[in-house]
Amino acid sequence: MTIYTRTGDEGKTSVIGGRVLKDDDRVEAYGTIDELNCFVGQAISIADPETFADLREDLLLIQHELFDCGSDLAFVRIKEERYKVGQELAERLESWIDRYEGENPALEKFILPGGTGLASLLHVCRTVCRRAERRTVTLSHQLEINPEVLKYLNRLSDFFFAVARTANARVEVQDIEYVRSGKVFRN
Fold this sequence. Notes:
Layout: E1 12-15, E2 18-21, H1 25-46, H2 53-73, H3 87-101, E3 111-112, H4 117-142, H5 147-169, E4 176-177
Antiparallel strand pairs: 1-2, 3-4
Domain Cobalamin adenosyltransferase-like: 3-167
Pathway: Cofactor biosynthesis; adenosylcobalamin biosynthesis; adenosylcobalamin from cob(II)yrinate a,c-diamide: step 2/7
EC number: 2.5.1.17
């Protein structure tokens, strides 16, 4: 079996139910989700298996759910009964955020992305997730999409912020506060 098909040589790609241009907003949205998934895989690969066993497990599940998000955005015609992303995924992320935030020091000011290598990469995940969300919003202005994908991506970027801080906290590396930040968070 070869992985090349030559069917995209003229700038079109297959989606569920048809073909579209490779720069179609649908392809931009699920392509950015795919990019995010790659960074999540990288985060799993550098997270210490003992210190971050729970996070590695959660991130692996997120990788599967990101595939589900991409699949839900790839339909040419709406097939709600075939959607894979439901409201329970965003709700579960909220409970995970609360759990990880319980490990983090109080936050009063904006912080810079950084600290450990893992924390830095999780901040990259957060920003790519925000871009995936923006691309999905753009798509939603043109086509009817599964609205749960937008909710999931919105909550997922919050998750990445929380776990980036946890990645620092568990190894006792302080977040770096933005020096010109006033107190912007209330505890």
